[in-house]
Amino acid sequence: MNRGVKKWTFQDRIIAPSLLAADFGRVAEETTRAINAGGDWMHLDVMDGHFVDNISFGPAFIQAVHETNDVFLDVHLMIARPDHYLPRFVSAGADLITVHVETEANHDVATTLQAIRAAGCKAGLALNPATPFEAVVPHLGEIDLLLVMTVVPGFGGQSFMEEVMPKIEAGVKYRADHDLHYHIEVDGGIGADTAAIAGAAGANVFVAGSSTFGARDMGAAVAAIREA
Ligand code: DX5
Ligand code: ZN
């Protein structure tokens, strides 16, 4: 399994095409297309209609992707009770599971992050544009990835919010000061131009939906983000 052999570090620049922008009726072909275009991880946006104002797909869809392609699956849970559904996403083949710090009101985020790692997955923590960096600080020693949202989550195709860049810089500084190794991912409105801005701030994982699946030449679009 390639995804098990490859050791990704925060020094790697990782491109994660978001299947939210793919043709759901041809998910296997779309995943293969993204891999052939140079995508490193597949980003899977799970939305429950509660935590965000949209409904996307669940574990069965992720399992379909997992069964047709051996690619690292980056699962972004935009759901109110990630703890409750966790085992189903693990069984579906998730390699990395990211939960939102804003769901703390519904469950204990620290316990959920530990459960993700105990299940053999990488653990990610996301924060929305309106959430201050301080909210994630108590958890930074327990994560493999920090996801700094560059749009309000819920929909693809929105505009990149440059004003959240200081949170990326704070994540880089905290990581160095505490000798930690988490990735910093950006998600929302990412294309070559905005990847350059987020990369300069210190992000190394770039989620891109419409700019990759919607491109005439997906390979060129992925390469442009990588080289930005
Ligand atoms: C937004 C999702 C994103 C979305 C990004 O709620 O978390 O992953 O797919 O889409 P684009 O790249 O089109 O902004
Ligand atoms: Zn996402």
Short description:
With 228 residues, the chain is of the alpha/beta class. It has one domain: Alpha-Beta Barrel (TIM Barrel), CATH 3.20.20. It has nine helices and eight strands.
The radius of gyration is 16 Å
Helicity range: 25-40%
Q: Could you state the CATH homologous superfamily?
A: Aldolase class I
Shape: globular
Q: What is the correct CATH architecture? A: Alpha-Beta Barrel
Output the strand order for the largest sheet. 1-8-7-6-5-4-3-2
Structural class: alpha/beta
Low-confidence stretches: none
Number of domains: 1
Give the helices and strands as they follow along the chain. HEHEHEHEHEEHEHEHH
CATH class: Alpha Beta
Q: Biggest sheet, open or closed, and with what strands and sense?
A: 8 strands, parallel
Determine the CATH topology. Answer: TIM Barrel
- What's the total number of strands? 8
Oligomer: single chain
Which range does the strand content fall in? 15-25%
Q: Which hetero compounds are present in the coordinates?
A: D-xylitol-5-phosphate, zinc ion
Kindly describe this structure:
The protein is α/β, with parallel strands linked by helices and 228 residues long. The chain has a single domain (14-227), classed as Aldolase class I (TIM Barrel), CATH 3.20.20. It is built from nine helices and eight strands. The protein has helices at residues 2-5, 27-36, 59-68, 82-92, 109-118, 165-177, 192-201, 210-213, 218-227; strands spanning 14-17, 41-47, 72-78, 96-100, 122-127, 145-149, 183-187, 205-208. It has an eight-stranded parallel sheet with strand order 1-8-7-6-5-4-3-2. α5 links the parallel β4 and β5 (122-127). The radius of gyration is 16 Å and the shape is globular.
